[in-house]
């Protein structure tokens, strides 16, 4: 053990001498390793951070949640002209599903809202994402109320002129004034603020702080309904433990009968599952990881050649010393490990520099992305260290073997 510790110490000393004595050559050789490790770990850290933020945003939404509507949330084989002729999903559809489809834990009717202008006194905010939805949405999504309350079932059914504001909207409209009970103008009508949601920050599909909820039936008063009217959807959350395949089959069967679709006729609606969206997100993240590995792999390859090059030069420069060491009794494995350790140390130094750069970039990026936090996990740092070690081993093994096989007499003669 003491022999290997001494060997490690001497190899580290040789590596430091190589760094200090041949600064430009060493810098160029390690640049590839540094860039390669930086690229891979930066991509992994960015993708992990994105995945973590998405999972946090979707944590309050059951993956089994379904959206029944005329629109498909993903690729479909149904032609565009046929989809355009599908009837809109209206409030009557919601009432039918809620009353006739079994094993539903909760369901809600939502109208696909458009950005609206909100006014309070002299303050005006444009582009507010107003979502008209029935009160059951609070049982499906993780709607967190900071002040006041969400609207009740009675207010939802009667279409009361009430509104629940996102934190950002309330803050921009009212500042430090308590917004509860205040009346604002939206859709050209007055609504009373009854609740303010907790601050959430940026999320998938927009910022929840810049949105608002109003009863769907309030909007249905002045916007045209019916099968060809405003675009809506029925959000369905099945009971836990239900066979999802069987549940979806029953849902489609009953809804087809409700819409009087004959056997053989295609569905004129889509059942979009949240699990499909999360699977698609996982697929995209996996592809991003793969592309990052492929692109960064070329940098690592260049870095490996750089390490191998500097090790061959090091063997050439120290041929005389190798001959002397072997003539004094040094075994081949001692010479082998000496150069192998040196290659690993050089590669690890390049890798540590790459990890340090990723850490600096993640700190800077987190300052400019608001609520989106870039995280350099311990697992990614360990992976960077392991990759550096592997690069050093692979790059240094051939030069180390060639050094260990040198004949001591020829080595001394060549060095002279």
UniProtKB/TrEMBL annotation:
A GO cellular component annotation in the UniProt record: plasma membrane
Domain MacB-like periplasmic core: 26-252
Places the protein is found: Cell membrane
Predominant subcellular localization, coarse grouping: membrane
Name of the protein this chain belongs to: FtsX-like permease family protein
Signal peptide: none
Species of provenance: Gelidibacter salicanalis
ABC3 transporter permease C-terminal domain boundaries: 293-408
Regions that span the bilayer: 27-47, 290-313, 334-361, 381-403
């Amino acid at each position: 053990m003491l022999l290997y510790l001494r060997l490690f110490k001497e190899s580290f000393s040789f590596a430091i001498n190589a760094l200090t004595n041949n600064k430009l050559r060493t810098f160029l050789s390690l640049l590839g390793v540094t860039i390669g490790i930086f690229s891979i770990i930066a991509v992994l850290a960015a993708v992990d951070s994105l995945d973590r933020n998405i999972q946090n945003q979707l944590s309050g939404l059951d993956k089994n949640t379904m959206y029944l509507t005329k629109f498909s949330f993903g690729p479909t084989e149904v032609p565009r002209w046929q989809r355009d002729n599908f009837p809109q999903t209206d409030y009557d559809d919601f009432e039918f599903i809620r009353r006739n489809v079994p094993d539903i834990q909760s369901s809600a009717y939502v109208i696909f809202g458009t950005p609206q202008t909100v006014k309070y006194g002299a303050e005006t905010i444009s582009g507010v994402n107003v979502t008209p939805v029935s009160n059951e949405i609070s049982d499906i999504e993780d709607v967190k109320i900071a002040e006041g309350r969400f609207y009740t079932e009675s207010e939802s059914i009667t279409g009361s002129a009430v509104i629940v504001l996102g934190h950002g909207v309330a803050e921009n409209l009212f500042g430090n004034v308590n917004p509860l009970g205040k009346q604002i103008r939206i859709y050209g009508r007055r609504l009373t603020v009854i609740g303010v949601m907790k601050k959430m920050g940026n999320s998938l599909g927009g910022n929840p702080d810049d949105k608002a909820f109003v009863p769907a039936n309030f909007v249905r008063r002045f916007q045209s309904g019916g099968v060809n009217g405003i675009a809506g959807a029925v959000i369905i959350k099945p009971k836990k433990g239900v066979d999802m395949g069987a549940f979806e089959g029953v849902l489609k069967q009953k809804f087809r009968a409700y819409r009087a679709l004959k056997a053989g006729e295609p569905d004129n609606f889509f059942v979009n599952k949240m699990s499909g969206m999360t699977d698609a997100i996982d697929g995209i993240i996996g592809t991003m990881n793969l592309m990052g590995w492929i692109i960064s792999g070329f940098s690592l390859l260049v870095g490996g050649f750089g390490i191998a090059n500097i090790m061959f030069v090091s063997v050439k420069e120290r041929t005389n010393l190798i001959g002397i060491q072997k003539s004094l009794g040094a075994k081949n494995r001692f010479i082998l490990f000496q150069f192998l350790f040196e290659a690993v140390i050089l590669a690890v130094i390049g890798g540590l520099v790459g990890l340090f750069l990723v850490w600096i970039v993640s700190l800077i990026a987190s300052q400019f992305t608001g609520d989106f936090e870039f995280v350099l996990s311990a697992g990614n740092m360990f992976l960077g260290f392991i990759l550096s070690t592997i690069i050093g081993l692979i790059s240094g093994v051939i030069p180390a073997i060639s050094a260990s096989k040198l004949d001591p007499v020829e080595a001394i003669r060549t060095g002279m």
